[in-house]
Amino acid sequence: MPTGPNPADFAVVRATNLAVVLRHVHANAPCSRADIAAETGLNKATVSSLVADLIDRRLLRETGLTERRIGRPATMLVLDGEPYVALGIEVNTDYLALSAIDLGGARILSWRRSFDGLDSTAARAATAIAALARRAAARIDRQDRRIIGLTVGVPGLVTPAGVVANAPNLGWSDVDLAAALRSALGNPAYPVTVDNDANLGALAEYRYGAAAGHPDSAYLTGELGLGAGILIAGQLVRGARGAAGEIGHVEVVADGPLCACGRRGCLEAVAGTAAIVRRIDPDNTEEALRDLDPEVAEIARRAKAGDKVVVDALTEIGGLLGRGVAVLANVLNPSLIVLGGHYVPLAAWLLPSAQAELNRRVIAPDAGGCRLAVSELAHSAAASGGAASVLDAVDYAKLSV
Amino acid sequence: MPTGPNPADFAVVRATNLAVVLRHVHANAPCSRADIAAETGLNKATVSSLVADLIDRRLLRETGLTERRIGRPATMLVLDGEPYVALGIEVNTDYLALSAIDLGGARILSWRRSFDGLDSTAARAATAIAALARRAAARIDRQDRRIIGLTVGVPGLVTPAGVVANAPNLGWSDVDLAAALRSALGNPAYPVTVDNDANLGALAEYRYGAAAGHPDSAYLTGELGLGAGILIAGQLVRGARGAAGEIGHVEVVADGPLCACGRRGCLEAVAGTAAIVRRIDPDNTEEALRDLDPEVAEIARRAKAGDKVVVDALTEIGGLLGRGVAVLANVLNPSLIVLGGHYVPLAAWLLPSAQAELNRRVIAPDAGGCRLAVSELAHSAAASGGAASVLDAVDYAKLSV
């Protein structure tokens, strides 16, 4: 039965209002105290007191900016958030990447190290991911900052509950990676989640990279595997069971080469990184797939030197890539499709034929305005997207208790 | 400068609150006055007065339902809305369809008449659409009801501003159909908008048909043209320029038959209604395309009678349809794909091979849970979706003034 208010109620109201102010600044920064009052319905004295509290906790800070308006110029507020750090890690077949971004949006750490994902079990991968997370945590602790969450990107199907249902290139199926990581990290106070690498890459390119200003866009991973992350109206498309974005396994060449998935002629099998390496350096493929960076760098070097075999192969593969992305463009009409990962150093030779094929195959005039672009984040996209997804999920009410 | 409240302010506040109550009942019906008060923050006396007003205007009505809760049973409220009617019309190559649905969700009119869209100009089509709308309006007027909006579905690319950029099967490009209709209807007080037929069909199947409970789903029109309407989390996917859903022009057979769009091997060219008619009744195709109903009925009759040529052809075309919808399933992971229009009477022979091919081609286990289903609305889907889109856009604040 309801009773009169007691001090605990006031504490709850204050925590709620602190969260309201933080969320408002997160969405609308820079903004003034008066803006916050006008748009949240809180009165100005309350807003001033809440802002003072949030500045004390280094969740907000004042900037020198002022707004032109009638009367006195106002001091503008932005998120500070320096003490609060979001972690993202990507595990892939040939590397681990880590990204740490603070609540104010500043990038603190960006690491990448080689990792033999092709020969690792899920348990060994969890150990390696946890070791990397602990190294970052130690550094963040020394700076008197606090980790507020970790999201790990995986090249495979991840269920809404965060279980890796299937990651064919890693050889994993039905792996509860989030649980394994929580355990390996000693059940940390922050949330640990798992998502598809392409989804996280799409989010990162939209927030920090080539897809800024493109709420309808897609991102192709360009790792050993080939997946797409899809944004519609700025929201990730996950599908009914979290399996959206499998452009890598759309058939683009009937009875084409065998794909790792067991089908034939999949986009991944004809235009994925392994297909590029196999086509250009067929003698050395199996070793090359374990460590793609030097292999891709060598292909780019030869293309740059004008090696006709390499340039012709990349031009042809670009055309096949164009067939695949034309499917995305016909079905979803994005304004931008970003090529990521190992496509980045090869983009100069892949992109022109891919864009031409895209334009030919899309029924909407001018390919519906769809343009191909190169990732600005390369192999750090999924890890950055992991950190971004932590920042998106921040519970400001908890942070401000 | 702000001054004290005056009577006009109170009227604005009351209109706003009436709209808040209507929107709440629209989203949560059936609900009690106490529910409304608890969830809107309005006090109970205010809610009672607002509800009385809305019942007077026949926007709400009481039902006999009561809620089990502590204390007295509560009278439950639902939308009445009988006096307010939403109109949807579809124009296609061989028919016009009209659907009228009142604000309470009751279907009032469902008409379909043949129409020679292949030989009509956009101006003649606008005249025919307006004539149909006027006939409905006359009937609705006689019942003392009021039209609150008209949305027209068109088989083509429609820009966000409602201009038909391109409707290849109708031979239209850059047609401002909404403006033409407004003029032909004497600039009515209600809004007139235009949308893609597949989008409206997807919306209708989700609200009233086979896709109920499937917020991640797609709908294939199955008219002379073949388009998809796509829902993600219950929202229509339109794309950056409104050109999403062009599954009909994804290539499924390399160097396949010529498509109306000028490309080869498009899904529409190998598994659209015209392809089915051409395959089964090649001597009579051009006449048959003008009036598809009897042609499709004859094909269904022959299949039902066990005509092996027809059954084999439909089984093979079902497989090609499966290739096409596998693209949607790999990219979007819907839980349901609905086959509409002329596919409905042929579904018994198309569906099994289509589902089998879908299952083979989708990388997620069990095709990511994606099932093919038959439209429950057939050729009235887009018209019903037009009415649904009017109901979704109702400005309750205006309605309650």
Automatic annotation (TrEMBL), chains A, B:
Presence of keyword Protein biosynthesis:
no
Sorted alphabetically, which keywords does the UniProt record give? Kinase, Transferase
Ranges for domain HTH marR-type: 21-62
Which Pfam families does the annotation name? MarR_2, ROK
The cross-references to InterPro entries, in alphabetical order and at most eight, read: ATPase_NBD (IPR043129), HTH_MarR-typ (IPR000835), ROK (IPR000600), WH-like_DNA-bd_sf (IPR036388), WH_DNA-bd_sf (IPR036390)
GO MF assignments? DNA-binding transcription factor activity; kinase activity
Task: Give the family per the record.
Answer: Belongs to the ROK (NagC/XylR) family.
What is the protein named? Putative NBD/HSP70 family sugar kinase
